[in-house]
Specification:
- Two copies of one chain form a homodimer.
- By secondary structure, the first copy, chain A, is mainly α.
- In chain A, α9 packs antiparallel against α14 and α15 packs antiparallel against α17.
- In chain A, about 80% of the residues lie in helices and about 0% in strands.
- At the A-B interface, α1, α2, α4, α6 and α7 of A face α1, α2, α4, α6 and α7 of B.
Chain lengths: ~425, ~425
């Protein structure tokens, strides 16, 4: 028994951790309970029950099936459910009327054939990716209602009443859901997408910073903050894996009415473009982080030579990303983004110059006028084989590539600002 | 009217293209229609209808909701639906018995509170990621059945009959679905995952090949096959974006009984690991493809110097991937994978040597004994600034990194072979 109690205790503890980690999950659960309890009133209160009768269960079912964490998803399902039911209801009554005219013998045949054909066609439309995002759920509800109403019509004689009751109870259920989801602490898909993009930008910037500083002054770091730095370094992985989330949020976002800073038809698709361009950056940061974990050690002298300009590139790029995040967050045109991008580009230029000077270091013959450098170069060339250059040079060129890709992010954000 | 006809014609044409592209979609649609028509017989045939009565609609609903393209997903939904209904049915009858003992005044209160609590708790369990993949749908059905049976209990007097009929119709619906999905051209999630991984490996190999050959002998290619090569080059993007698909397939795969070459508990999770390691390779190929599109032109002489060893690395890596794909496909231990990996590693070694010799080219002082090379180096150093080295060197080091990551793929595949 003590083992069981311990297990229950562990389970409760874990549940509490999840709840404390994201209180909105708890709020969502309470909202579901609330909506279901309200819809149960249709059973418990005599006058309401008399109005809809046994079909009150359709309202209960609708609430269970349609209620989702975000407003956008709930609206999508509500719209789809209502439209699918309407369309299928009318069609089913029509087909039933036609079938009942065709004689008792053919009626089941006509009904069966219509169910087969329409179910197949609706299923086919569900498999089309572009339709899927718009009315996947609606197509399912269409099949459901059609086969239900059409087939019941063979046995139930007040078919029109059945269709009418089903539609009215579904409207009761959906309106209740919409009220509860929008009035009690609403979670908007669009808002979620917006803050996901902003957070991801911050994570990218952090990763980039940690990557570069860790490579160039590993010893300077105190071991205390190492764990935190590791966590920051892994930030880009969130960006890599957030594609599916972004897409579904953008998809649901377009169903939402205007809320907070966003209008009804906010260009959510543009956020997907920003997300894609950020993912391109993240690919490069992935390559960068594999560089810093590489076994090929670079020569310290070369590292030192390039460290200041590399760090400048990384810090200016990350501050450009942070400024972009701020722009997206506040939805105001930032005056200093262009400045920061310019700074980033000049840092890139400087890094390229440093790389060039590295080549002078290597090839004394091309810079006969710089005596001092030459001696340095002799030192370098005699002690540093090219192999030890390669890691640093690779790192530098990946940094340059990251700067190029950040400009793509800047363009995407600017396009969002315009639209 | 002609405009409408044209639109309909275009629509049909597009639908035909989709159907021709993947005939299995059409088969799936036909299967849905078939299952629905069969389940409709419960309405059309007197003896069957007498058996279940108006509740036959639950069987129809079950078929519509549960029928999915793959066997695994259908089984997952069937199991969840049956278990959720059973559990909720028993619990609801119990709660109803308890509530009916507590007096007429308290009955609605007890029922309402139980609906609120259980619905909230079940919703909470749905939000837990690890539970989500196992019984997300089951939890929804649990809430649905519980509130339906418990709340109806207040008005319906033969509650036990209601619960019993709901369970038996759901069992009829699910068994029909399972029969149709498994007997008529079944599509297995596991099989799909298996071939997705194999195809993705081939795509990776193609991308890698095209990348390297395009960089080193751009002129040698005929423009005719350019389009095809472009398509092959983009292959790695499929690998980058297939994470979500892989995960859901692996998730559904574990519900499937043994089929074809796979046993009941085939280690599908291992496929996810292979997929993840392949994605790591794809990130590098992404970086590689940005290298070949880079504006910084490399010096031809350096390109020539490294081209043979780079091409050797890329071709040996891609043939190692192809062999891995073959191993996974046939599920037989390949005798030559180790050989190919060895070849790849020696190609990497050769490339590293070439890079080293490049350093001798640059630093004549370190190789005083090689007169011939020295003259070559003087030529090189006077004509080629280091800047023009960088693109090739970066490319070479990314190629080396890819080879390292391919070894991770090899390890993952070997682990799969063991388990």
């Amino acid at each position: 028994i003590s083992g069981l109690a311990l297990k229950v205790w562990m389970f409760l503890k874990r549940a509490w951790a999840i709840a404390a980690n994201d209180p909105r999950k708890v709020i969502h659960c309470i909202k579901v309970g609330l909506a279901l309890t309200i819809v149960s009133l249709f059973y418990f209160m005599r006058p309401l029950y008399d109005g809809v009768g046994r079909n009150a269960m359709w309202a209960v079912m609708t609430v269970v099936v349609v209620f989702e964490p975000t407003v956008g998803e709930t609206l999508y399902k509500c719209m789809n459910r209502v439209c699918g039911t309407f369309l299928a209801g009318f069609l089913a009554v029509g087909v039933h009327w036609f079938a009942s005219r065709s004689g008792e013998r053919f009626e089941p045949l006509v009904m069966g054939a219509s169910v087969f054909l329409l179910a197949s066609a609706a299923t086919f439309s569900r498999l089309n990716p572009s339709a899927k995002s718009l009315f996947d759920y609606g197509a399912m509800i269409f099949i459901l209602t059609f086969s239900f109403v059409a087939v019941s019509g063979y046995r139930v004689h007040k078919l029109f009443d059945l269709a009418h009751q089903r539609i009215s109870t579904i409207i009761i259920g959906t309106s209740l859901c919409i009220l509860v989801i929008m009035l009690v602490c609403p979670i908007w898909s669009g808002q979620e997408l917006h803050s996901l993009i902003v957070h991801n930008m911050d994570k990218l910037a952090d990763s980039l910073d940690v990557c570069a500083t860790r490579y160039f002054n590993h010893s300077g770091e105190c071991t205390n903050s190492n764990e935190e730095a590791d966590k920051k370094l892994q930030g880009y992985k969130c960006v890599l894996s957030s594609k599916a989330t972004e897409e579904s949020m953008a998809n649901f976002g377009r169903w939402e009415p205007s809320h907070g800073q966003f209008n009804f038809r906010h260009p959510w698709k543009q956020y997907l473009k920003i997300g894609a361009s950020m993912r391109c950056c993240a690919y490069c940061i992935e390559a960068l982080s594999s560089c810093i974990n590489s076994e090929n050690k670079a020569a310290e002298s070369i590292k030192k030579h390039l460290s200041s300009s590399c760090l400048k590139v990384s810090s200016s790029s990350s501050s450009a990303i942070r400024e972009l995040a701020e722009t997206v967050k506040t939805m105001k045109k930032s005056s200093i983004v262009d400045l920061l991008v310019g700074e980033m580009n000049s840092a890139v230029q400087e890094l390229q110059n440093d790389l060039k000077s590295l080549s002078y270091l290597l090839n004394p013959s091309t810079t006969p006028e710089k005596k001092k450098l030459e001696t340095a170069c002799i030192e370098a060339t005699t002690t540093v084989p090219l192999m030890e250059f390669i890691p640093v040079v690779t790192l530098a060129s990946i940094l340059i590539e990251i700067a190029v890709r950040i400009e793509a992010v800047v363009d995407a954000v600017e396009e969002l600002a315009k639209s």
